[in-house]
Amino acid sequence: MALKNTYRRNVASDGKIEMNLQEFKKWLKRFDLDKDGKISKEELREAIRASGGGWFSRLKGSHGIKAADVNGNGYVDENEFKNLVEFAQRNLGVRII
């Protein structure tokens, strides 16, 4: 679970971290280092690593961008954010409520 260290208080009985959409966006925004409002592969990788993603944070970051970046520009912007949420729910042990 990549976000366990960040949101321990919201762990469901199935082990998934529960948060609302605003909490998820706020968490990701902390890793938007250049403050451009978009998430790059490197920024997503760092977010996953910093919150307990372990050895596979590089791979998970790459897969997350690939899954969410519809226009292929290398970033997840506001229009593609829904795709990143879906990826997080499938692959990062997160449930957006």
TrEMBL record:
Q: Tell me which residues make up the EF-hand domain.
A: 19-54, 65-91
GO MF annotations, alphabetized: calcium ion binding
CDD domains the UniProt entry points to: EFh
> What are the alphabetically sorted keywords of the record?
Calcium
Specify the superkingdom.
Eukaryota
**The keyword Calcium belongs to this UniProt entry's keyword annotation:** yes
Is Metal-binding among this UniProt entry's keywords? no
Q: Which Pfam family is an annotated match for this chain, by its short name?
A: EF-hand_7
Bilayer-crossing regions: none
InterPro entries named among the record's database cross-references: EF-hand-dom_pair (IPR011992), EF_Hand_1_Ca_BS (IPR018247), EF_hand_dom (IPR002048)
The protein, known as: EF-hand domain-containing protein
